[in-house]
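Morning. Coffee machine broken again, so started the prediction first thing and wrote up yesterday's gels while waiting. Chain of 336 residues, entered below exactly as on the submission form.
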Amino acid sequence: MPAGITCQKIELTLGFIMSDTAELVTIGITCFNAADTVEKALESAVKQDWANCEIILVDDCSTDESVQIANVFAYNHRHIRIIEREKNGGPAASRNTILQHAKGVFVAFFDDDDISFPCRVRSQIKRLITFEEETNIRLVACYASGQRRYSNGYVKPMPALGSCGRAMNSVGVVSDYLLLYKKKQGFFYGAGVPACGLLARRNTFEKVGGFDESLRRVEDADFAIRLEMQGGAFTGTSQIAFEQYATNAPDKSPERNLDAEQKLVKKNKKYLQSHGDYYYALNWPKLRFFHFKKQYLPFLKSFFGIFIRYPLRSIFHLTHTGAARLIHERAMFKCN
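Came back before lunch.
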């Protein structure tokens, strides 16, 4: 565990007893060209303080030594299973492969370049069960709080959605945020709905229908929207339980992001049109794209098109996210 990071201890008096009779948890790790980090990710999965875990790593046709490294590590850990996909399908396809082979009552997703602290699974299960008892809802996604570390030492907090504030169990509370950046008063949105921090019951994933493999990005947002539309709810843990390492890859390009974000909007066209928000949702991702590409004239033209239709909302959105984005980028690229 990195220096200065603590993980809140979950006391046995809360009723979570570490024993071999604990319900089985599947830890699913998606892997693609992660030779430099996959061993640490597997090690953090092995060190979880929940007694009964299986670990499934799905490799998405890596071209480096990821599989060899994972197999060497798994040799001494019988509860690790390595599955190699025959065709590259992206994160959604890898997560669905994990779900197809999972035997656990709960499934937690880890990333191949993240480190999860030993308390992560235990704290999420505790929070999920408590939330179920408080709300009498059984279709729940629980997110872990974490932090993202950059190569220059900058660390960005990633507090979990639903880790404080009102219970997020109403249709539109999360979907409107993900599609339109509409925040409703009293709810805590934190770092959104990253799959790298997600734990839920296996039957929750089954009921929602897993992940949409046509999306190479934002498949986690799509899952959350579909869960909410089916009456699901969201909660999160407050303690930091994982550390994410910022990486660059072709599948994270502005072009890939824009394509996936607009596909997500089109999937929800009927819902957005019923609220008069379809044009807004479809065109706002273009602003992010033009910003990342430093194409300022197209940015201004696109913003003007949105502004004349939604003047107050577009100004609010830009002022509330733009300044934060610029501060974040300055910290990202600041030299040591």
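The longest strand covers residues 233-245. Going to sketch it on the whiteboard this afternoon.
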